[in-house]
């Protein structure tokens, strides 16, 4: 029998090597067809008496990334489409679909012949769960091998036996840690946790896997053997009595109770370890079905899995323009941002000419990459040769003539219109005809900057976030005259450096910073009302924000807020900034020199390490303090999220952001907007626009007109619309179909 996604070669010892290699895909993923074929392979190998055992591996450089988008989309359309018609039947169907993998892997485990997973590369999610159901697991020690059950990061959990097999192999604490954080394991760590049996040189992988079978590997999982004991003894032991009361508390500390998927892991492990294996799998299947039905799972999978991949693959790239593979770009301005942009570009194998006012400033910019490379080599993340190669791609210089053969130049000089004008003119005297000019400005509208250019249709914004090496998001900004080619090249570049782009129209603050400043402004309001600063910061964390607004303000610099507020007043008039905010920030910056982390004092104090930062006690004297018991933390949480979400809704209404996927992904990757919500617009859609509008009205009555719902929101509430319905990102595809 032949298969579309697998090849099978049986050797003289009767060991069938099953190689998973999906045609037309760069990575193996689980689809309905793949599952059907695995099912058929189990049947065929069981039936074939010549087959003594199976080694399961991948023909690609990675083992598998887990489930496929279309399969996941299918699950949700099942939920949405059929639930209304016949809820019971829809539930049953979802339960069955959710269990498909569970019982197929169980079939592998109980097929009667030994299976060994030969893990040759990244092995994630369902693929690792399949490996866990094999009787043996051998992993290559190549650096590229990463093992994880990362489902919790997209709002679900390892629901194909993961929550049952991992704690029956590893100790419970490690198992919980691995699954509730979705952490990535090296093969060595996986072995230490007892999750793989052997770690071998890449070229020994298949031999070692086959040897396990030849050595008489038993085709029975440990938990199917009589007398099996859970590592550490299970739930009713003194050690477990210490672990389990603490586990939910630790989880709550880490997640503030916002992630049903994470909590379900605890429940599955706790309940499952007390049950026979098949019953335990069923318990897992029930919780999995339940979590799949949660708003959090739906929104997180949509934004963090589906939309992120779609945007990463260039969902917004204009059609009909040939994809470019950039080989050399220019970065002008080798300061804080430019230096790091050069680094991430070279790390993607693209040559960079890094220009500053003089050789010395340019070399200082390259030194940033030298330090980053030295750190990575020191930590074993890069080999010495890889580090040298990366650095050889960056040429620091003051000579603009080196831009004569680049296809893109990124300008990252001072945030000053005149400096940017001079630099633009200088660059354009040498830039090749077709090359694209991108500005990394964070506050100056692109349309205005493009007036300095002779070819505004080739002028675009490519806005990076700091720290550039870590931040996954890049905002691509279209000026009024920006043409399709500029957008296409910008997106090709962002794709090459492996960041996720969102494409937004021109506006003050673009998308991300507009939202961020709302968050920070709400905290100013709270401070002025006398809410203790610690409550503001904690409420933000409880709402799911990674960083409190005051801490964030310290990171971006308090004097930068002051600059931006002054610029708003100059450009838009006095009413654009609340006078109380200006007074607060003037006091912080002008009177107290508290400019943020960069000068060691802002809303927090930053003592020398290893001491930790702490809120500056002097803040208490600014405004009469409310008593903690008089402050409603629930309302604080709402205000912080609602003010951001409202701003996101405004950007859609103004046509700044045009695709809800970008608002959502941009908010999570740009400033960590409570990921369990799926992002700013999913937050609104998740509770329903009508509920959101009512919430805004309640908040506006007590906390100011900035909470007033906008005309669009009111209209949508009336019509019962959602953002993903009204601004359907797939409308063009649907029309075509
Ligand atoms: P920076 O002051 O650290 O760096 C600016 C660099 O430009 C300096 O090295 C300076 O020598 C150089 N420069 C100035 N005039 C020049 C000229 N005429 N020719 C060549 N080089 C010149 O500033 P930065 O923080 O890196 O910001 C640069 C740009 O990036 C700004 O437009 C800023 O708004 C934007 N940005 C900054 C951040 C951030 O977090 N700092 C984030 C996103 C975008």
Automatic annotation (TrEMBL):
InterPro entries: 3-OHacyl-CoA_DH_NAD-bd (IPR006176), 3HC_DH_C (IPR006108), 6-PGluconate_DH-like_C_sf (IPR008927), ClpP/crotonase-like_dom_sf (IPR029045), Enoyl-CoA_hydra/iso (IPR001753), FA_oxidation_alpha_subunit (IPR050136), NAD(P)-bd_dom_sf (IPR036291). Residues 509-606, 638-721 form the 3-hydroxyacyl-CoA dehydrogenase C-terminal domain. Residues 328-507 form the 3-hydroxyacyl-CoA dehydrogenase NAD binding domain. It catalyses: a (3S)-3-hydroxyacyl-CoA + NAD(+) = a 3-oxoacyl-CoA + NADH + H(+). It comes from the Bacteria. One of its GO terms (molecular function) is enoyl-CoA hydratase activity. GO terms for biological process: fatty acid beta-oxidation. It holds the Pfam family 3HCDH. Keywords: Fatty acid metabolism, Lipid degradation, Lipid metabolism, Lyase, Multifunctional enzyme, NAD, Oxidoreductase. Pathway: Lipid metabolism; fatty acid beta-oxidation. In the central section; belongs to the 3-hydroxyacyl-CoA dehydrogenase family. PANTHER family: TRIFUNCTIONAL ENZYME SUBUNIT ALPHA, TRIFUNCTIONAL ENZYME SUBUNIT ALPHA, MITOCHONDRIAL. This is 3-hydroxyacyl-CoA dehydrogenase. It comes from Xaviernesmea oryzae.
């Amino acid at each position: 029998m032949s298969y579309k996604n697998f090849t099978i070669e049986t050797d003289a010892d009767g060991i069938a090597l099953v190689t998973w290699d999906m045609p037309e895909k760069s990575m193996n993923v689980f689809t309905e067809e793949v599952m059907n074929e695995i099912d058929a392979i189990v049947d065929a190998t069981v039936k074939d008496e010549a087959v003594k055992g199976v080694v399961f591996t991948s023909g690609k450089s990675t083992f598998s990334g887990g489930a496929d988008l279309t399969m996941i989309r299918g699950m949700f359309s099942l939920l949405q489409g059929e639930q209304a018609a016949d809820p019971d039947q829809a539930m049953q169907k979802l339960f069955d679909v959710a269990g498909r993998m569970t019982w197929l892997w169980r079939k592998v485990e109980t097929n009667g012949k030994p299976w060994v997973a030969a893990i040759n590369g990244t092995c994630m999610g369902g693929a690792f769960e399949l490996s866990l159901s094999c009787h043996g697991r051998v992993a290559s020690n190549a650096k590229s091998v990463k093992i994880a059950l990362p489902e919790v990061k997209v709002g679900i959990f390892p629901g194909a036996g993961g929550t049952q097999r991992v704690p029956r192999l590893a100790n419970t604490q490690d198992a919980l840690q691995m699954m509730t954080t979705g952490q990535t394991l090296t093969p060595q760590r996986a072995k230490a946790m007892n999750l793989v049996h052997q770690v071998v040189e890449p070229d020994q992988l298949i031999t070692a896997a086959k040897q396990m079978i030849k050595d008489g590997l038993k085709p029975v999982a440990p938990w199917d053997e009589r007398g099996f004991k859970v590592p550490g003894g299970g739930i009713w032991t003194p050690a477990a009595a210490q672990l389990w009361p603490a586990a939910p508390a630790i989880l709550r500390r880490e997640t503030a109770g916002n992630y049903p998927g994470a909590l379900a892991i605890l429940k599955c492990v706790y309940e499952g370890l007390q049950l026979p294996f098949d019953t335990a799998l069923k318990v897992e299947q029930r919780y999995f079905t339940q979590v799949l039905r949660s708003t959090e799972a739906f929104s997180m999978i949509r934004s963090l899995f589906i939309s992120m991949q779609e945007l990463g693959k260039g969902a917004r790239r204009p059609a009909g323009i040939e994809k470019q593979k950039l080989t050399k770009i220019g970065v002008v301005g080798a300061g804080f941002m430019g230096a790091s942009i050069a680094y991430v570009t070279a790390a993607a194998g693209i040559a960079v000419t890094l220009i500053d006012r003089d050789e010395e400033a340019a070399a200082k910019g390259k030194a940033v990459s030298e330090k980053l490379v030295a750190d990575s080599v020191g930590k074993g993340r890069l080999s010495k040769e890889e580090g040298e190669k990366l650095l050889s791609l960056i040429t620091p210089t003051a000579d603009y003539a080196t831009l004569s053969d680049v296809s893109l130049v990124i300008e990252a000089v001072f945030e000053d219109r005149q400096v940017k004008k001079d630099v633009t003119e200088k660059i354009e005297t040498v830039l090749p005809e077709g090359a694209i000019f991108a500005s990394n400005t964070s506050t100056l509208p692109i349309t205005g900057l493009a007036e300095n250019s002779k070819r505004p249709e080739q002028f675009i914004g490519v806005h990076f976030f700091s720290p550039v090496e870590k931040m996954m998001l890049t905002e691509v900004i279209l000026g009024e005259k920006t043409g399709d080619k500029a957008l296409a090249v910008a997106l090709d570049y962002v794709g090459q450096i492996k960041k996720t782009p969102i494409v937004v129209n021109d506006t003050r603050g673009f998308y991300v910073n507009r939202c961020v400043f709302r968050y920070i402004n709400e905290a100013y309001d709270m401070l002025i009302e006398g809410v203790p600063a610690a409550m503001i910061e904690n409420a933000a964390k409880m709402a799911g924000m990674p960083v409190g607004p005051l801490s964030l303000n310290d990171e971006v610099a308090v004097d930068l807020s002051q600059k931006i507020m002054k610029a708003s007043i100059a450009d838009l008039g006095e009413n654009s900034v609340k006078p109380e905010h200006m007074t607060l920030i003037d006091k912080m910056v002008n009177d107290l020199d508290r400019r943020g982390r960069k000068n060691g004092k802002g809303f927090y104090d930053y003592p020398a390490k290893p001491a930790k930062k702490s809120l500056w006690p002097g803040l208490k004297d600014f405004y009469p303090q409310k008593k903690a018991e008089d402050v409603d933390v629930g309302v604080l949480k709402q205000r912080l999220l609602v003010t951001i979400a409202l701003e996101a809704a405004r950007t859609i209404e103004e046509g700044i952001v045009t695709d809800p996927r970008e608002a959502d992904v941009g908010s999570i990757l740009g400033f960590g907007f409570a990921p369990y919500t799926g992002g700013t617009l999913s937050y609104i859609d998740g509770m329903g626009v009508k509920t959101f509008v009512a919430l805004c009205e309640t908040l506006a009555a007590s906390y100011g007109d900035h909470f007033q719902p906008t005309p669009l929101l009111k209209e949508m509430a009336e019509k019962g619309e959602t953002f993903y319905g009204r601004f359907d990102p797939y409308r063009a595809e649907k029309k075509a179909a």
